[in-house]
Amino acid sequence: MAGERVRIIQRDVVKSGVGFGSALAIVISYTAHKSVLWAIIHGFFSWFYVVYFLLTR
Hints:
Elements (H helix, E strand, L loop, with lengths): L1 H32 L2 H10 L1 H10 L1
Helix pairs in contact: 1-2, 1-3
């Protein structure tokens, strides 16, 4: 029972983290490039783009 509860919590955290990473990447990308196409592409890469942006700025 406890193992099942841990799995459910982990799934929710992962889902929220991916959603937040994508949203953050889209906002950063649109602010930097003013392009919806680039925002969609960077949203797909989510946390990879966020880390890249932080390392190159």
